[in-house]
Input
Amino acid sequence: MSVVSEVSLDGKKLTITVKGRFDFGSHQAFRDAYERFYKVPEVYVVDLKDTTYMDSSALGMLLLLRDHAGGDNAEVQVINSNSDVRKILAISNFDKLFDLS
Amino acid sequence: MSSLAPVLEPLTILIAEDSAADLLLLSTIIRRQGHQVLTATNGAQAVELFTRERPQLVLMDALMPVMDGFEAARRIKQLAGEALVPIIFLTSLRESEALAQCLDAGGDDFLPKPYNQLILAAKINAMDRLRRLQATVLQQRDQIARHHDYLLHEQRAAKAVFDKVAHSGCINAAPNIRYLQSPYALFNGDLLLAAYTPSGDMHVLLGDFTGHGLPAAVGAMPLAEVFYGMTAKGYGLAQTLREMNAKLKRILPVDMFCCATLLCLSAQRRVVEVWNGGMPEGYVHEVATGKRTPLVSRHLPLGVLSAQAFDDGTEVWPMALGDRVFLLSDGVLDTADANDQLFGAERLQQVFAANREPDRLFEDIERALAAFRGQARDDVSMVEITLQAGQPLRAAEPVYADSGQSCPLDWSVSFEFRAQTLKSYNPLPYLLQLLLEIHGLRGQSGALYSVMAELYSNALEHGVLELDSRLKRDAQGFADYYRQRNERLGQLNSGYVRVHVQVVPTATGGKMTLRIEDRGPGFDVEQVLARPMDVDRLSGRGLSLVRQLSSDVRWSDGGRSVCVEFCWGALA
Output
């Protein structure tokens, strides 16, 4: 598991990439990824292209990020998820809260 | 002396040495290094002194009369038990075999004669460090063991409290429920609840909290309370779900929620009503055809959305007697093999397809999981409920504590529920609570609730919404019926349902008259009542049920008004 975060040049977009298992073990790293930026980006992107597995505590972490980013006004995209991860997001109907393009 | 390593803490050191000159020399050196000294001149004396004084470190001559150093070392190590009492052998022996023997006997180090003061002090300090390390390790081990015991004790206590709440329902008593859950499933966040409504329908909840351990278990308690409280009072799934969601949203941290499937099985109406938020697909199994209808997750889990955004929309499926509903937790599908491959829904479908004996389905699934992984997970929950006729109508719960002296016996009340109210509010639990103020009616609360529920939904669905119950003749029409019901209810902006209650005392007890009116097109009472009751038909059960359960039923105003009576005798 590793979590990498990167801000776009204009500072408006924060991309968080999670590699390997996205579960409770990533909790602190995932929070650090968005909490250590004092500037609030307009868009958050969670890139799951190298995420192999995701459990319900990872869903909880996405909710934390959404809350941090402004709750119902937040713009959080969850992108590049593989089919297993997509299934987990679909069962929980997270498409109602996140942009799962 | 300044060149010697500093002494951390004075120790009590036992010196066993048969040569008086050596003993004197060594004692002097050790005392000068700041330690206390005990002396023995043979092994037996050393063991005896050790037993009495418990020194922290031993300097032991190998060859002594009475009992040699090797034997004394063995005994002292035994007496010391788990604590490390370092033994340094003092020896003029030179052969490696003899030196090895010192360590084999339990010695921790050796010091060749003649003594080098510097080396001696350094060895004593090094051994003291090891001794402290061992003491710390033991202390921490005991602390962990104590914490562990404490945690287990806490879990047992919490589970005992929780079982009182969670199993106050019918999960273990109902003959038509089978379930499989690890005894400590609660601490995996899995929750299974079942209870009867006043009219004998069964509500079942299978939930799965995020996370593990106590945090997952804590949320289960309020959820169970809401489930049992509202089910017993006759609330439907929608209101119960709204209350559970609002409660969890209020008390849980943002990253915690509860995936859940909530069911209402009605043997009377031969239907199952389902809400699934975040749980894997369960199934309605039509036994006659073998068809399995998936109960798909359509919603976010409980505790995520605000009350305004929450969607309580349910789906309704027809069921025949003997049909089964199967629910499972994600522990089943997420069981992973050695290569991190998940068991998944397709393998589950294969187990379904291969299953020959419906009663052995759980065993088949467990076997398949075991074959897949070789080891069972402890967070696998499964439940199967069979639709059975003749669920008894329940007397009201909770039990009332008052004496019956203050029971109201001569009153009447009228309500008119208009469009905005009919859309989202279910007045039945409120009416039931009101009527159960009458003690004589409490024994019949199940029948009373069933009759009220039937008459109210007839007035709403046929009177106000003008739905035709003949639509429900097959499964497709059945789904259409409930789709239309939701659509029309959503668009409703006129119409009403009136409820009049009149209670009068009689010579033998009392009588309650309940009149329900709507402003719909009415129906041909004679003709509908004359229709034969057909067991396979999905409609038309309501009216015959009402006639069975109340003392008198009369329609008037072309079917737009219906009146039922309930009588009771004097209370003993």
Chain A is about 30% helix and 30% strand. Chain A has a mean pLDDT of 89.
